[in-house]
Fold:
Amino acid sequence: MSKIMILTDSCCDIPKETIEELGITVLPFEITFGGETFRETFDKTTEEFYDMLEKFDGIPKHSQLSPLVFEETYTRLYNEGYTDIISVSINSAGSGTFNNSIIGKNDFFEKHPNAEMRIFNIDSRCYTVFYGYPIMEAVKKIRKCAEADDIVAYLEDFFNVCAIYAVPYNLKYAKKSGRISAAAAFAGELLGLKPIIEFADNGTAMIEKIRGEKNIVSKLVDCAEKRMIPQTPYILIHGRDDTLAKEVEKEMYKRTGRKAEMFAKIGAAVASNIGADLVAVLVRRKNK
Structure:
């Protein structure tokens, strides 16, 4: 019988208690604030990180996961009797972690040429619960005896069709980190404008400019509703404050008759690059 493990990194923003409940293997990114380094998700709570970010004048750093970390993890899981490992990584355009997961796989099979274990390496092509949510759903499918190939197909379909539409309240972190190209091109802050940024397909794009904070909810809902497949689940994403996310859900419910599938909070790796204050919607896109 097959024994399947989902392996991912902490940028998936799955809460620690859910990781433990579902038995997912999560490799933590290390976040560095000046001289202090800690493991995302495991060493500090998200709330503690937000407090640190507010008091810190610079931009926190996080490094990619190394091939050795992956090789050692594959070896441990192999020794535990797993027949299939599905490794899902942070967007390969923003981190070398996905490529390192493949190098680690090659190193593992060099040392274990006769290992009867399959390793599937998947680039999520995005961040946060864009891959955290389908990973949680994938574990449920595994518990219902789904095969590894079916799980891989489900995940790749999700990553192909979905997108996040986000409104960051402050672009300081996005511009300084340089990881969000759409933010670098945005020049309307002095006029009180805020961007809606699409995250999907290994990239970012500025979809619209919103004038005034009072218009964020209506404009973000307009954007999501226009692009989403009708009557499909959506997910709301927020940072430190979930007030606007709750308002977005109310408006989405008025228009679609559906409440959010879940509310998700961004973690340290994501907040380091976009700030701790944003509201976003994850949807399945019509044109995909």
